[in-house]
Amino acid sequence: MKKAAADGSPVIIKKYANRRLYNTETSSYITLEHLAAMTREHRDFKVVDAKTDDDITHNVLTQIIMEEESRGQTLLPVSFLRQLITLYGDSMQAMVPGYLEASMDSFRRNQEQFKTAVEGAFAHSPFAEIAKRNLAMFEAAAHAFQPGAAGTPTPTPAPATEAPAAKVDEMAALRAELARLQDKVDKLG
Question: 5 burial class (0-12, 13-18, 19+ CB within 10 angstroms)?
Answer without folding.
Answer: middle
